[in-house]
Amino acid sequence: MNINLTLLMQAVAFAAFIWFTARFIWPPLMRAIETRQKTIADGLAAGEQGRQSLATAEKRISELIDDAKAKAAEIVAQGEKFRVDTVEQAKAEAKLEADRILAAAKAEVEQEVARAREHLREQVAVLAVAGAEKILSREVDARAHADLLDAIKRQI
Questions:
Q1: Which tens digits make up the pLDDT trace of 65-97?
Q2: pTM for the full model?
Q3: Number of domains in the chain
Q4: How many CB atoms lie within 10 A of CB 125?
Q5: Which of 3, 8, 87, 128 is least surrounded by CB atoms within 10 angstroms?
Q6: CA 118 to CA 105: how far, in whole Å?
Q7: Residue 106 belongs to domain spanning
Q8: Measured between alpha carbons, how far is 128 from 153 in angstroms, rounded to an integer?
Q9: Rounded CA gap, 52 and 36, in Å?
Q10: How far, in Å, CA of 70 to CA of 68, rounded?
């Protein structure tokens, strides 16, 4: 066996193998590698975009929570103000009602005092007539002296 011929044949076979590999195996393998690299790059970009989107969403959520807290505080403040206004209004209405009842009671007392005075005047007049009748030992005509009794009532 000739070693040179063997080496030459092995070199030709190796060259054919390289050509075949470069022609038929290498391009699909490179396409697969490029596709995989592109998929990985797209995934990384999507991950970064998702991270940015998450940060934006967290910021937006924080703003919404702050707004909700502010609105809740405002609603509570309005409720407190309404409660205070309602209590003040109820106090004012109660005071007006108490004043009205007090005024009505005072008017009723004044009417009762006036009635009692009138009744006392009548009783004093009757007692005065009875006393005068006893003193004079004669009967006094009540009809004849009605004007006199009215004058006495007015003076008392």
A1: 999 999 999 999 999 999 999 999 999 999 999
A2: 0.45
A3: 1
A4: 19
A5: 3
A6: 20
A7: 3-155
A8: 11
A9: 24
A10: 5
